[in-house]
Amino acid sequence: MFPAMRVLGIESSCDETAAALYGDAGLEADVVHSQTDLHAEHGGVVPELASRDHIRRLTPLVETVLDRAGLTPADLDGIAYTAGPGLVGALLVGATVGRSLAWALDRPAVGVHHMEGHLLAPLLEPEPPAFPFVALLVSGGHTLLAEVRGVGEYRLLGRSVDDAAGEAFDKTAKIMDLGYPGGPALAALAAEGQPGVYRLPRPMTDKPGLDFSFSGLKTRVRLELEALGEDRQARADLARGFEEAVAETLAIKATRALGATGLETLVVAGGVSANARLRATLDARVAERGGRVYYPRPAFCTDNAAMIAYAGWCRLGAGQNEPAAITVHPRWSLEALAAVRAGPA
């Protein structure tokens, strides 16, 4: 059982600036500022611009989340911030604010693994999954499968050997000139497409193992696109073919992971987990084997501080904290994390 704690979470790993409060009664407040408009004219995230905007936004966001909860900094029992993986400059902004606040308040602080935050996000829901389960994490920067036995008890089963699923969505959207952010725009176009017009490959599903590869799909889309011109329906059909290929590939590998581990619970998180076609495909395939899929609510699929606050609450409550050094990890393995032996109340 964890001692009573209220933890401030800070997220600044890429292009969202966020703050949240998590305590024994659950999530008390959270706020997110998206940098989408800032980066849209560049067609993607510009690291320097992202870092500068985090500097401008983060302290006011912390003040906002405290105001919404009716609290002051003195009411905090600990600070959690995203320490990696992510953009090094962006990570340093959140780590500096988190560490400085912890030092000023004489409170413990802990750096949280961004993907652990995503993995634990479904535990914020009213009906959370129970350990153990298989986690499928699908975002712009990561696609991986892991066996999860508890907080910090992760065994990597498979990962993308090239583009992550979200990265493939964004790059394919760019090829189709759909603007930024590309993933949602491509999904919207795919919703207008007809099923079965384009049957694109399901990469690496004909081979054993649980790794992924999505770079070839965007190349296939580029080749098909050259013959389409500006025919909107044909472009929508192609977008649907791409989306179906990604969704089915993820579903095939995820159910294969359930079979390999003997588990029946699948947790899906990360930005791509909000995709409606992926959810429908996963639900159907996992239900066929008598299992169940858990997702975070849409607001917690994308980067947010609620998941960081919760992960920090788990780790700080178990007595884990770190020296007052500002350290970030642009690359960081989930399997390197320490296990949390105590469980939430």
From TrEMBL:
Known cofactor(s): Fe(2+)
Gene Ontology cellular-component annotations: cytoplasm
Main location: cytoplasm
Reaction equation(s) it catalyzes: L-threonylcarbamoyladenylate + adenosine(37) in tRNA = N(6)-L-threonylcarbamoyladenosine(37) in tRNA + AMP + H(+)
Cofactor binding, per record: Binds 1 Fe(2+) ion per subunit.
Positions of Fe cation binding: H114, H118, D303
Domain Gcp-like span(s) in chain numbering: 29-310
GO BP, sorted A to Z: tRNA threonylcarbamoyladenosine modification
EC number: 2.3.1.234
EC main group: transferase
Annotated CDD domains: ASKHA_NBD_TsaD_bac
MF-aspect GO terms: iron ion binding; tRNA N(6)-L-threonylcarbamoyladenine synthase activity
Localization in the cell: Cytoplasm
Keywords: Acyltransferase, Cytoplasm, Iron, Metal-binding, Transferase, tRNA processing
UniProt similarity note: Belongs to the KAE1 / TsaD family.
Cross-referenced NCBIfam families: gcp_kae1, T6A_TsaD_YgjD
Protein name: tRNA N6-adenosine threonylcarbamoyltransferase
Gene that produces this protein: tsaD
